[in-house]
Input
Amino acid sequence: MTTHPYTRYVAIGDSQTEGIGDGDDLHGYRGWADRLAEILADGHPDFAYANLAVRGKVTAQIRAEQLGPALALKPDLVTVMAGMNDLVRPGFDAERVAGDIEEMFARLTESGARVATVTFPDLGKVSPLARRALPRVLDLNARLCAAANRHGVAVLDTFPHPVTADPRLWSPDRMHAGPLGHARIASGMACTLGLPGHDDWAAPLPRLAPVSALRTASGDARWAVAFLGPWAWRRLRGRSSGDGRTAKRPEPTPWARPHGAGSQGEAEGRAGFPGG
Output
C-alpha cells in the first residue's frame, strides 16, 4: 500500500493516455494512465478513476471536449497529456497549442485539483516521421514547463532521459508507447507525484547489439508502408483515428483492469524494468 491523498483521478488527453500501443481493440487498452490508477488504487478501496482521453485528438479538441467534463467530475488529481498530434501536423503553432494547454492547467488547478503533465522525448530518435520535429519538441516542452511553473503543475520531464527514446519502449508504429513504455510513464508519473518506490523509472535498458544501416533502412521502409501510409491517407481525407469514438472510462469508478488488457505489457515490464 502506498500512502497518498488522492481519491478521484481523471486523465485527459489523446491516444497515449487512452493507452494505444498497450493492448488491442479486442481485449481493450491499458496504457500508462490505467497503470498509474492501478498504483494509486493499491490499498485505497475508495479510489476512483476516469479516463476521458480519445485517440487522434489535437490539443484544441482536448480542451474543448474533455476539460469541461473533467471539471464536472470534481477530481482531486488530473493528468494532462496533449500536443503530440499537433507536433506532427503541418502548420504547427506552438503558441496556440501551449495556450490551450495553459488554459487547461489554469482551470483545473483553480478547481483545487492536483495537476500533472508530461514533456515529450526526442521523437526523432524513435520515428522517421518526427526527425525534423526536434525544434518543435524543444519549443513546446519549454512552453509547457513554463506554463506548469506558473500554475503549480507537476511535470514528468522525459526529454533528458535517453531511455525514453529507446525503441524497446515504443510500439511497432513508432508513434505510441509500447507496453514497457507505458509502464515507464506510469512509474515516472508516480515518482513525479512523490510516491515511493519509483525513483528508477528512467533506468537504462541493457545495451542492444549494433544494427546495420541496411537493416535500419529496411525497417524504415516496412514501417512507412504499414503505418506512415495509412496515417498520411487519413490526413489527406481530413479523417482522424478518433472519429466516432468516445472515452473508454467516462465516469470515475473503482479501479479494475479491463479483462485481458495489457497482460503482455505486465510481463514485459517485469522483464525489462524491475519493479515497473
Remarks:
- The mean pLDDT is 84.
